[in-house]
Specification:
By secondary structure, the protein is mainly α. Helix content is about 65%, strand content about 5%.
Length: about 240
């Protein structure tokens, strides 16, 4: 989180335009959480964030309420609103949901060719970040990859569901002490899924994705459990 405590939200003010709503504020904050600007346990200041976005306190509180319902934030009496810290069981549940949704999306794609431009951009983003040693950037690119994968379904409802699920997943990534070890193996696997879809091999892509998610679930859950058991060793 930046020194002002707003996560760079001033730049997002233009997204609100003249039709500011709690839902749009919530969408901005959800994206910022998913991209790592607000780590687990961070307190969200009504004054700072409301000022950065130029919205009323009531609008911001409603946005906080929506994100609390999505399990991204928690309200602590007399202390304020904080980014949620996941339990280990939450990580397993997130991956169960991901497997159900993401594999179903690939299975239901229909006939090739598939519109994989967004996936290709996310793969390139991750590889560029890895080359620069930016493992937080690799994590963000990975979130983008899976968001683009789900977007292939062309369903606003599925997109909305997975935005929340992937934002929750990012909360787990924040506390893992070795982000390179966690994320580097999936750069190659993202490209393998992309290549299968480019070739029109939907069934192969689904098999790759299912194994990918099963392996990732095991690795992330174990890494998260270690970090939670020994929080002093977590680099975030």
């Amino acid at each position: 989180m930046d020194a002002s405590g707003t996560g760079g939200l001033t730049d997002d003010r233009v997204l609100l335009g003249r039709t500011s709503t709690a839902e749009r504020v919530a969408d901005i904050l959800r994206t910022r959480i998913a991209e790592g600007y607000f780590p687990p346990g961070a307190r969200l200041s009504e004054e700072s964030i409301g000022g950065a976005l130029g919205v009323s306190r009531n609008t911001l509180r409603e946005a906080f309420r929506l994100l609390t319902h999505e399990r991204l934030l928690v309200h602590e009496l007399n202390r304020g609103v904080f980014v949620r810290v996941l339990a280990v069981g939450d990580v397993d549940d997130i991956y169960r949901t991901r497997r159900l949704v993401e594999c179903a999306v690939v299975r239901g794609l229909g006939q090739p060719p598939f519109a994989v431009e967004g996936l290709a951009a996310a793969v390139a983003e991750g590889e560029t970040a890895a080359h620069a040693g930016d493992w937080t950037g690799v994590s963000t690119a990975n979130i983008h990859f899976h968001r683009e994968l789900v977007a292939l379904a062309g369903s606003a409802r599925t997109d909305e569901l997975m935005r929340g699920v992937l934002a929750e997943l990012r909360l787990a990534f924040h506390v893992v002490d070795d982000p390179r070890a966690l994320h580097e193996p999936y750069l190659r696997r993202n490209r393998e899924i992309l290549d299968a879809l480019r070739a029109g091999e939907r069934a192969s892509a689904e098999r790759l994705l299912a194994r990918y998610l099963d392996d990732s679930r095991t690795r992330v859950a174990a890494a998260y459990a270690r970090a939670v058991d020994d929080p002093t060793g977590a680099a975030g």
